Amino acid sequence: MKQSLQLKLGQQLTMTPQLQQAIRLLQLSTLDLQQEIHEFLESNPLLEIDDDDQAPIEVPAGIESKTETATTADLNNSEEARVESEWTDNIPEELSIDSNWDDTYQSSASISEQSSYEGESDFESFNSPLESIQDHLLWQLNLTHMSDRDIEVAYAIIECVQPDGYLSITPEEIWESLTTDLEELDLEEVIAVQHRLQRFDPVGVCSIDLRDCLLVQLEAFQDHPLYKSTHNLVDLYLPLLGSRDFSQLSRKTKLKDDELKKVIDLIQQLNPRPGSVIDADDTDYVIPDVSVKKRNGTWQVELNNDALPPIKINETYSAMASTAAASEDVTYIKTSLQEAKWFIKSLQSRNETLLKVASCIVSRQIDFFELGEEAMKPMVLHDVAEAVGMHESTISRVTTQKYMHTPRGIFELKYFFSSHVNTASGGECSSTAIRAMIKKLVTDEPAKKPLSDNKLATILASQGIQVARRTVAKYREAMNIPPSNERKRLI
User: Fold this and answer.
1) Nearest 5°: CA angle at 24, between 22 and 26?
2) What is residue 66's predicted lDDT score, i.e. its pLDDT?
3) What pLDDT does residue 385 have?
4) Could you give the number of structural domains in the chain?
5) Polar residues bias: where (predicted)?
6) Residue 430, H or E segment
7) Are 137 and 158 in contact (CB under 8 A)?
8) 185 and 255 share a domain?
9) How many angstroms separate the CA atoms of 338 and 331, rounded?
């Protein structure tokens, strides 16, 4: 095969490392970006925390936007210096032989503890171990007087407790698993220990089913005038209550409507999932990236700069780029300086893009901020991308895991995007507004005769919104609203 040279002309898109970094920072959430900044501060000596106020970012005219930064580093440093000077001035030159060092000298741990309690402190930020339902029950078991035999049975029962508080297996199965270890163990002993564990906190834990759980919790209402009627309903007619067959309940329990309503109210005070009180899940935090406020009749979009530590280039190290003697040091400093500049530029680009997209969203959804969810307009990624002059993929990255603090609550930026449904007048209505209308109709529906999905679709059609019954059912299920037969109420 003969080798030859050929000349070709073509176009190719190449992503530089700087562009890849900017795209990666753009799609990070606030918490992830905080971690990224701290890691970059540790790896790059040319970056440091900026104690000075940041200059506000300029955005295009339209929706009024501004940024504000509250720096507390100087206040914290001055407070620590004041506390340190107080205890250093009080240390005497000579101490007596029988004196205690802790009485005179205040350790650094005490200083930090004192300073943290004097200011604002987030107690949930401490890395304390999470407590499960088993840990909570074992702690109470260690404080309860039981025989060694009963304690071993109690350990076996607690191991079978699920996160919702119910047992995963029956007491008979627990008894069969213990007969090999405990001689002459009776099933009544296992049931007796189970009944004792059911009175632990939270009451009703270690139950077999819902009926057993509610009956145990009802023991706290034995002085209630309707205790016997409530106990009878839970013990015998709980399935009828679940199906909301109030006419059958009233006939079988021989209770009038007002008495049956009070009995149901008493049952609703009980906890059907006692294990949910002990939540072992880690707390999820949401830090708003932008906030929206109305001032002087104008909606203003502000960037939350307090969520991110302000950073700058260290002037001392950057000046060494031209004064360092060794060439390797000069190369390292210049490389780190270039990386630091690109990192700061990427952060500024992220903030500008986020503020620009948020301002465009607010300008298109002003009716939502003024009137509520029912006034939400349909909007897709293409609409915002065309308005700000960016690609749809960029808008998708900006709106993912980014949150906006509004007078109506905290919403993810993706919340403001929704598909549209054509109206009878030729206009468009967003799916979010339709969900709000369905929710309002369900809230105002008759208690004894809830609206079916077909009836909801008919009411919406009378308002000019043409939606199918299955679409109404899909929206209703998305809002965790039960069907009409499960929404029936006595009064």
Assistant:
1) 70
2) 46
3) 92
4) 3
5) 68-78
6) strand 428-430
7) yes
8) yes
9) 11
Q: Is 75 among the domain residues?
A: no
Same domain assignment for residues 321 and 267: no
Residues 171 and 297 reside in one and the same domain:
no
Beta strands at 403-406 and 64-68: parallel, antiparallel or unpaired:
unpaired
Inform me whether the pLDDT recorded for 58 exceeds 80. Answer: no
Answer whether residue 314 is part of any domain: yes
- 390: which 2 tokens? 């960016």
pLDDT of residue 101: 45
Q: What is the mean pLDDT of residues 217-245?
A: 92
Same domain, 334 and 206: no
> Which of 70, 71, 65 is closest to 302 using CA atoms?
65
104's CB contacts (< 8 A; 6+ apart) are: 90, 91, 92, 95
How many whole angstroms separate alpha carbon 349 and alpha carbon 22?
8
Q: Are residues 302 and 360 in the same domain?
A: yes
Q: Taking residues 159-178, what's their average pLDDT?
A: 93
**DSSP assignments along 243-306, one per residue:** TT-HHHHHHHHT--HHHHHHHHHHHHTS-S-GGGGS--SPPP----SEEEEEETTEEEEEEEGG
- At residue 76 the predicted structure's pLDDT band, cuts being 50, 70 and 90, is very low
Examine residue 429 and state whether it is found in any structural domain, yes or no. Answer: yes
With beta carbons less than 8 A apart as the criterion, state whether 153 and 178 touch. Answer: yes
* Mean pLDDT of all residues in 169-173: 93
Structural domain contains residue 245? yes
* CATH number reported for the structural domain that contains residue 461 in this entry: 1.10.10.60
How would you write 15-47 as a 3-class SS string?
A: CCHHHHHHHHHHCCCHHHHHHHHHHHHHHCCCE
407 vs 153: CA distance, rounded Å:
54
Asked whether 438 and 478 are in contact (CB, 8 A), the reply is no
Are 50 and 312 in contact, with CB atoms under 8 Å apart?
yes
**271: which DSSP letter?**
-
What pLDDT sits at residue 181? Answer: 79
CA neighbours closer than 13 Å in the CB half-sphere of residue 452: 4
Dihedral sign from CA coordinates of 368, 373, 378, 382:
positive
Of 416, 437, 458, the residue that ends a domain is 416
Band (pLDDT 50/70/90 cuts) for residue 30 is confident
Single-letter residue type at 110: S
- Cβ(204)–Cβ(271) below 8 Å: yes
Q: Which domain range does residue 471 map to?
A: 420-486
Where a domain ends, among 386, 416, 446? 416
Question: How many Å apart are CA 179 and CA 173, to the nearest integer?
Answer: 10
**Same-domain pairing of 249 and 367:** no
